[in-house]
Design goal:
The protein is 34% helix and 21% strand. The protein has one domain: Rossmann fold. The model has no long low-confidence stretch (mean pLDDT 95). The protein has 232 residues and is of the alpha/beta class. It comes from Streptomyces smaragdinus. Keywords: Oxidoreductase. Pfam families: F420_oxidored.
Length: 232
């Protein structure tokens, strides 16, 4: 008679790796969203490098944010970072990434760009040819490990030193569970945030598009709404 070996217990989905020793680069770190993320991650103890087309501008922004943040030109930021967050404006997304393909080779890239248009009716979602900003990034950076996250965060709250916690969930998408685990763990470094796996990159469009709805919510209720996922 043969007996089967016991199956290992399933991994706890919230048992995530330690990312405290990794350096995080923020491309577009002089913009509101990038500055806010840089500020929060540095405040949580992460080493952060702000990237900009101008090293001087990046250095000035880093000095304003204080300890734990330094500034550099985009290419230097990309090469020196373990995880690189892309927080550039949508209209400069493709050009920026094309110019940094070599510097981002082998890096874990986190795209948080939301392709949006605006008219007299308000914000509306755009759909890139590749399907989403994240999928565009993956197409432009074949040597990088591209994920998507940090789309639904209020830049106002992120930059406000009077706000101790950012009470929101961060939906994380990607092709490798090991990579999305790292990004979830990074989100968890910020008090109040929780990183949640939300599927593969092919599902990034609807996550990016939801920002148009949040803009409408925030305008109507004069708020800084985020997203919470229930029952997990």
């Amino acid at each position: 008679m043969t007996t089967e070996a016991p199956r290992p217990a399933p991994k706890d989905p919230f048992d995530l790796p330690d990312v405290s020793g990794l350096t995080v680069g923020v491309l577009g770190g002089t913009g509101d969203q990038g500055r806010g993320l840089a500020y929060r991650l540095a405040k949580a103890g992460q080493r952060v490098i702000i990237g900009s087309r101008s090293a001087e501008r990046a250095g000035a922004a880093a000095a304003e944010l204080g300890s734990g943040v330094e500034g550099a030109a985009n290419e230097d930021c990309a090469r020196r970072s373990d995880i690189v967050i892309v927080a550039v404006p949508w209209d400069g997304h493709a050009k920026t990434l094309e110019g940094l393909r070599d510097a981002l080779e082998g890096k874990l890239v986190v795209d948080c760009v939301n392709p949006l248009g605006f008219d007299k009716k308000g914000a509306y979602a755009l759909k890139p040819e590749e399907g989403s900003a994240a999928e565009q990034a993956a197409a432009l950076l074949p040597g990088s490990r591209v994920t998507a996250a940090f789309h639904h965060l209020s830049a106002v709250l992120l930059q406000d030193p009077g706000v101790a916690e950012i009470a929101t969930d961060v939906m994380v998408l990607g092709e490798s569970r090991a990579d999305t685990d790292l990004v979830q763990a990074l989100a968890n470094r910020i008090p109040g945030m929780r990183g949640v796996f939300a599927g593969r990159l092919r599902n990034a469009h609807q996550v990016e598009s939801l920002v148009a709805n949040l803009i409408s919510v925030n305008r109507r209720y004069k708020a800084h709404a985020g997203v919470r996922l229930t029952d997990i």
